[in-house]
Automatic annotation (TrEMBL):
Biological or metabolic pathway of the protein: Carbohydrate acid metabolism; Carbohydrate degradation; pentose phosphate pathway; D-ribulose 5-phosphate from D-glucose 6-phosphate (oxidative stage): step 3/3
Ribonucleoprotein listed as a keyword: no
Enzyme Commission code(s) on record: 1.1.1.44
UniProt-recorded name of the protein: 6-phosphogluconate dehydrogenase, decarboxylating
Enzyme kind, highest EC tier: oxidoreductase
Family matches, as CDD domains: GntK
InterPro entries xrefs: 6-PGluconate_DH-like_C_sf, 6PGD_dom2, 6PGDH_C, 6PGDH_Gnd/GntZ, 6PGDH_NADP-bd, 6PGdom_BS, NAD(P)-bd_dom_sf, P-loop_NTPase
Family: Belongs to the 6-phosphogluconate dehydrogenase family. Belongs to the gluconokinase GntK/GntV family.
Subunit structure and binding partners: Homodimer.
Ranges where the 6-phosphogluconate dehydrogenase C-terminal domain occurs: 344-630
Origin species: Pontibacter amylolyticus
Length: 630
C-alpha cells in the first residue's frame, strides 16, 4: 500500500508522515526532496509555483510510486493540492490519501514557528487558493498532536479495510505477544483461540480488552469465522504446541483455498515440518516452518525468526516477519529465508541445542566460583558484569547477573529453587540428529544429559550421602583462577558454537539446503536467546570461513586459553564439581586438534572381532585391508 499524506505547507505532512511510516514499518519519502533547484529558489523568494513548474516534479513522483509499491509500500508526504495532481500521482490502484485539514490561523502559527525551511509563511495564501480538498480519503484535524493524528489515521485505515491481513491461531504467551507485535506495527490482525468450557473461554476477547489502544485487532473463538475474516491469499500463523499441529491442520485445511499460507511458529521437529510441507503442497497450500526465538519479551518487541519451506510461501509473508523481527546492529531485520522443507525448524532446533549448552556452561562457571572458591553470589554477579563489559557480553550472561542479585526478603531467591532442570525436547532432538549424521556433538549432548541427570534428585541426595566430597590439598590463587575461568568459559562458548554449526553444515550438504551460516549468525545477533558479542563475530567470520576453529582470530583466542582451560577443568573435577559441558568442550578441542589419535587401535579392534577391515597410512587412500590377528 502507498500512503500519501497531503495538505498545504505547515500542516505537518512531514512529521505525521515520518511517524506513520515508523508505525507501519514502511520507508518514508518527502516530496519536497524531489523539487528541482529552480522551483526551490522560486519558493524561497515567495514566488508560487505554477502547473508548469510542478509538472516534472509530479511526473518524477508518479514514476517512483510503482517502484515503492513493488518494494512493499511507502509513506509519501506531498502537498497534492489539486485533483489533477492527485490523478497524476495515482499510478497504482492502492493509494490511501490522508488529508491534514486545519484552519488558516492554526497553520500560519506553525509556519511562523518553523525555521530553516525553503517555504516562507507568505506562500500559505497561494497554497490555500490552489487547494482543492479531496472528497475521499481520510481527513484529520491538524490541531491534534502528531501522535493523536497517527492513531486516528490507523483507526480509520482499519475501518476502510475490514478484512484482516494476518491471522494468529493460539493465544498463549508467544502467540498473544506476536499478535500484539503485529498489531502495534499497523497490521490488521485476526486472532483465534480454541474454546474449552471452564478452561479456555473468550481468550481473544480478553486480549482485545487488555489492549484498548490497538483498534486493528479482531478476536474469534469460531475457526470458520476467523478464516473468513482474512483477506486472500490468507496468512495464518499457528502458535500451538507441536503435538497439536496435525489435529489443527485437519480442521483448518478444508477452510483454506489454493495459495493460502500456513506458518508453524512453534518448536516442531523439522522432519514433521517437511512432511507437512509436502502434504499442504499437494493441496495447493504453502506451509512455512518458522523457528521463533526470544521468549515473551522478544515475541512482543522483536524476536529472531527462522522461516523455511517453499520460497513462494515465504515471499508472501516476508514483509510481516521483517516487520516484527528484531534489528541487527545495522538495522536489518533478524530474519531471513533459511531454506526448503524443514530447514527453518532444523536451524531453530540447533539454536536450542546451543542454548542448552550455553546455559549449562554458565551454571558450571557459577558452581566453580561459589562452591569451590566460596565466592558470594553478589560478588559472582560483579565478576560476570566485568565479563559482560569485556568481550563476553551475551543475553544469557545478562539474565544470570540479574538472577544472582534477586532476593526474596533477605534471602537469595535462587537458593530456594529446586535443582531439577526441565526440558521440552528440542535439545534431545538435535542430539539424536547428530548421531544420525555422525557429527560430534559433545557440548550440546552433555548439556541435555546434565538436565536428565538433574532430574534424578532423590537418587542424587542418597548418593551424596554415600560419597562425601573430599577437597584436595591444593592451594588456589583466586585471582589467577578467575582469569583462567574466564578464558575457559570463552573457549567453551566458541567450541559450543563450532559444534552446532558443524551439525548444520553436514545436514545442509546432505539435504542440499545451501544454508548461509553468516546470515544465520546475523539473525541470531539480536532478538534470540543466544544473542551475544560472539555471534556478531561469527556473522563476519562465516562470510569467509567454513570452520570456526580454523579462523585466525579464533585460533589466537583458543591458543591463549588452552592451558588455563585445562587447569580449570582439572581442578574443578578434583574438587568434585560436575563440569559436563566445560570438560566435553575441552575434550572435543583436544580431539579435534590431535593429528594422530588412538582411533587406529579402534579400527584394529573392529577388524579383529568383526573383520571390518581398515585403511593404511602407507597405502593408497580408499584401499582396505584385513588381518588375521591371532
Amino acid at each position: 500500500m502507498i500512503y500519501i499524506v497531503m495538505g498545504v505547507t505547515g500542516s505537518g505532512k512531514t512529521t505525521v508522515g515520518q511517524r506513520l511510516a515508523e508505525r507501519l514499518r514502511l520507508p518514508f519519502y518527502d516530496a519536497d526532496d524531489y523539487h528541482p533547484r529552480p522551483s526551490i529558489d522560486k519558493m524561497r523568494q515567495g514566488i508560487p509555483l505554477n502547473d508548469a513548474d510542478r509538472a516534472p516534479w509530479l511526473a518524477q513522483l508518479a514514476s517512483l510510486i510503482p517502484v515503492w509499491e513493488a518494494n512493499g509500500g511507502a509513506v509519501l508526504a506531498c502537498s497534492a493540492l489539486k485533483e489533477e495532481y492527485r490523478k497524476t500521482l495515482q499510478t497504482v490502484p492502492d493509494i490511501s490519501w490522508i488529508y491534514l485539514d486545519g484552519s488558516r490561523d492554526t497553520i500560519l502559527q506553525r509556519l511562523q514557528a518553523r525555521h530553516a525551511h525553503f517555504m516562507p509563511p507568505a506562500m500559505l495564501e497561494s497554497q490555500l487558493q490552489s487547494l482543492e480538498k479531496p472528497a475521499y480519503g481520510i481527513h484529520v484535524d491538524v490541531s491534534l498532536s502528531p501522535e493523536q493524528i497517527v492513531q486516528e489515521v490507523i483507526s480509520k485505515l482499519d475501518h476502510m479495510n475490514p478484512q484482516s491481513e494476518f491471522g494468529v491461531i493460539g493465544l498463549g504467551v508467544m502467540g498473544k505477544s506476536l499478535a500484539l507485535n503485529l498489531a502495534s506495527r499497523g497490521v490488521r490482525v485476526a486472532m483465534y483461540n480454541r474454546h474449552v468450557p471452564g478452561k479456555e473461554e473468550g481468550i481473544a476477547t480478553q486480549v482485545i480488552a487488555e489492549n484498548p489502544s490497538l483498534t486493528n485487532i479482531k478476536g474469534f473463538d469460531k475457526l470458520e469465522e476467523f478464516v473468513q475474516s482474512l483477506e486472500k491469499p490468507r496468512k495464518v500463523l499457528l502458535m500451538i504446541y507441536a503435538g497439536a499441529i496435525d489435529a489443527q491442520l485437519d480442521v483448518l485445511i478444508p477452510l483454506l483455498e489454493s495459495g493460502d499460507v500456513v506458518i508453524d511458529g512453534g518448536n516442531s521437529y523439522y522432519k514433521d515440518t517437511a512432511r507437512r510441507t509436502a502434504l499442504l503442497s499437494g493441496k495447493g497450500l504453502h506451509f512455512v516452518g518458522a523457528g521463533i526465538s526470544g521468549g515473551e519479551e522478544g515475541a512482543r518487541k522483536g524476536p529472531s525468526i527462522m522461516p523455511g519451506g517453499p520460497r513462494e510461501g515465504y515471499e508472501q509473508i516476508a514483509k510481516y516477519l521483517e516487520l516484527i523481527a528484531a534489528r541487527d546492529s545495522k538495522g536489518k531485520p533478524c530474519t531471513t529465508y533459511i531454506g526448503p522443507d524443514g530447514a527453518g525448524h532444523f536451524v531453530k532446533m540447533v539454536h536450542n541445542g546451543i542454548e542448552y549448552a550455553e546455559m549449562q556452561a554458565l551454571a558450571e562457571v557459577y558452581s566453580l566460583l561459589r562452591f569451590m572458591l566460596g565466592i558470594a553470589p553478589a560478588e559472582i554477579a560483579g565478576i560476570f558484569k566485568d565479563w559482560q563489559k569485556n568481550s563476553l557480553g551475551s543475553y544469557l550472561l545478562e539474565i544470570t547477573i540479574d538472577i544472582l542479585q534477586k532476593k526474596e526478603g533477605d534471602e537469595l531467591l535462587l537458593d530456594k529453587i529446586l535443582d531439577q532442570a526441565e526440558q521440552k525436547g528440542t535439545g534431545g532432538w538435535s542430539a539424536a540428529v547428530a548421531l544420525e549424521y555422525g557429527v560430534p556433538y559433545d557440548t550440546l549432548s552433555a548439556a541435555v544429559m546434565a538436565r536428565a541427570l538433574s532430574a534424578m534428585k532423590t537418587e542424587r541426595v542418597k548418593a551424596a550421602a554415600l560419597y562425601q566430597k573430599q577437597s584436595p590439598s591444593v592451594t588456589i590463587n583466586e585471582k589467577s583462577f578467575v582469569t583462567s575461568l574466564k578464558q575457559a568459559y570463552q573457549a567453551t562458548r566458541i567450541i559450543n558454537h563450532e559444534i552446532g554449526f558443524s551439525l548444520m553444515r553436514e545436514v545442509s550438504v546432505q539435504l542440499n539446503w545451501e544454508l548461509n551460516f553468516s546470515e544465520i549468525a546475523r539473525i541470531w545477533t539480536n532478538g534470540c536467546i543466544i544473542r551475544s558479542q560472539l555471534m556478531e563475530e561469527l556473522a563476519e567470520i562465516y562470510k569467509h570461513e567454513q570452520r570456526l576453529l580454523m579462523a585466525p582470530p579464533i585460533v589466537d583466542k583458543i591458543r591463549n586459553a588452552r592451558q588455563g582451560f585445562a587447569s580449570v577443568v582439572a581442578l574443578g573435577l578434583q574438587y568434585g564439581i560436575p563440569l559436563p559441558v566445560l570438560s566435553s568442550a575441552l575434550n572435543y578441542f583436544i580431539g579435534y586438534s590431535t593429528a594422530d589419535s588412538a582411533a587406529n587401535l579402534l579400527q584394529a579392534q573392529r577388524d579383529y572381532f568383526g573383520a571390518h577391515t581398515y585403511q593404511r597410512k602407507d597405502k593408497t587412500t580408499g584401499e582396505y585391508f584385513h588381518t588375521q590377528w591371532k
